Amino acid sequence: MKMKSSIGVIIGNRDFFPDRLVAEARVEIIDLFKKLAIPAVMLDTEATKLGGVETFQDAQKCAALFRAHRDEIIGVLVVLPNFGDERGIAETLKLSELNVPVLVQGYPDDLNKLDVARRRDSWCGKISACNNLYQFGIKYTLTTKHVVHPQDPTFIKDLQDFVAVCRVTKGLRNVRIGAIGARPGGFNTVRYSEKILQRNGISVVTVDLSEILGRANKLTQHDTSVQQHLQKIRDYASVGRTPDEALFQMAKLDVVLAEFVQENALDATAIQCWTSIQQNYGCNVCTSMSIMSESMSPSGCEVDVTGTLSMYALQLASGTPSALVDWNNNYADDDNKCVLFHCGNWAKSFLPDIEISTAPILGTSVGEENTYGALSGRTPAMPLTFGRISTDDPKGIMKAYVGEGRLTDDSLKTFGNRAVAEIPNLQKLMHYICNNGFEHHVVMNASKTASILKEALGNYMGWEVQVFDEPIRDSVPNGHSSRELVSQY
């Protein structure tokens, strides 16, 4: 059973400020969490004074509570209804040993309530709290406004984005990716370092493609599991002119892939999708990969493990499926548009006209009759976040780029899975990709989540992150993201 994800809440307090501010904040935060359906873990009002954290003893109690829920807490919200005790907050996080993202919020003062009985001073207290977190080496996230009421729309978005940052961070620190088969011989571009991935908590489980095909060949069309997966495929997409023989081959392979994923507790897969499968088994694996991606278990082409990792990251940020695509063609003479393509295995969410077909380009070398299972479909206009994570082996680091644009309905007469993307300063993006040795694969997601990915990958994972279309900054957030680079592109 999947463990629920919760946010720990620390409500700071300082003894010479009004206690009722803590009580009011607790009610407001509980109400907001209920409204947003975010499970919370926080001290009871009986455990400490009003459930706040002020003394070292309070910090010990809150840390013990958090440790008891460490399997479900994916992030911590620090609430400052008044100046707060900066040491109590930092000590709680240190003692809890959670190592999760932290969002720091402070309440605004009312100009008509700056007397001793009603003032907050959270503006100042937040600076002190962050200073202590910095000293303790605890990474944290700031709200859009320095101080903000929980009912403010900007804070609600900040909180929702923060939960997404927590999902990405937790997911990437524990992800298991299946590498099924060897990369195609002509694709040095998708080489990667398993060791660098493992140092970042990312495990790769490998298997020879012959083992998968051997298991599939032992199945028959009469097996119950094959019949079930055949029906799943028919329910998923129009089969077009795909012959029954090819559908049975696809179903048998789908059974074995599903078993391999379950046996190894995999979150995602990268598959040797050509040419061995076509030459030795007689179909494409694209439909199975699309089904997995649509069901939030992303599957990437050409054993592109870090491309698949990118799919998973964007999926965690948005809560919707991702697709691994080629930066494939210019779009006429428009410098800010390009064609995204694969032959293809994109999730159904991107393909309203989805149909099981063949792969004509691949068919020229392996026989088109051996490529049934590739999908055909055009992606319509929708939001776009794009991104790519890679291992930079010469530097020994993880690096990434992310950005936003849009997918358009511009005319595009071709086959396979296809889309037209419009991206500001696309030419500079292409220069960056080429100059920094990134792959020809990129991931697209129908969302606006670049800021979430920047925070998760840069601040909390500690990777080198390039974000496109952001203002130049003189320094990195918190002083923590030593490898994050943000420039104007």
Automatic annotation (TrEMBL):
Pfam families the record matches: Fucose_iso_C
UniProt keyword Isomerase present: yes
Domain L-fucose isomerase C-terminal intervals: 340-466
Keywords: Carbohydrate metabolism, Isomerase
Signal peptide: none
Cited PANTHER family: FUCOSE ISOMERASE, L-FUCOSE ISOMERASE C-TERMINAL DOMAIN-CONTAINING PROTEIN
Protein name, UniProt field: L-fucose isomerase C-terminal domain-containing protein
Organism of derivation: Dyadobacter linearis
